[in-house]
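Predict both folds.
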Amino acid sequence: MMRLTVAENDQLVARLSHEQGRRLADSGVVQARPSPFDTELWELAPQGKVGVARVGDVEVWVTPKLVL
């Protein structure tokens, strides 16, 4: 299981397989697109939701932009 953590107002670059990246892109949890510089790197940005989601074998933690 891969765990990725990103703040809701931030971005993340992660090494993912094509299948993992496509599943994340289709999930609606994050916006995911392959990096133009490396086919194994994916650029991820939250889609306005805070929480945890498991998409296949990837767990995505989107944390609030403000820590309470």
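Second protein follows, with its predicted structure tokens after the sequence.
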Amino acid sequence: MRLIHALVPIAVLILPMQVVEAQLLFGDRLGEAHYKGDDTKIIMQVSSDMLGSAPDGETRSWSNPQTGHYGDITVIRTYNMTYNKKSLPCRDTRVVGMLADKKVVYVIPLCRVDDGSWKMAAR
């Protein structure tokens, strides 16, 4: 089994989740070759449910019967980050995918912005 790790790039930047989903998390080079069907949609649903309420260390499973892919999502830590002179609540999450003969692992920093949505935050 091949193991692929990805840590989202580090810089001061906040991106909409749609951009993250398309370009970084499951984007054209790394993830797109692995995630199929509704994998991304299922992962995004599970993680969005966790961000507002799950304590640090909590892990929840995801699975897609359509593709046979599965994995888990863990909230690693909660912290604050300053962006545009505002303190934003942030959470690091680890997304693990078991995809046929590959194990794919992403660590994703996310911050809650003024409108209540969670955005990708590269530190």
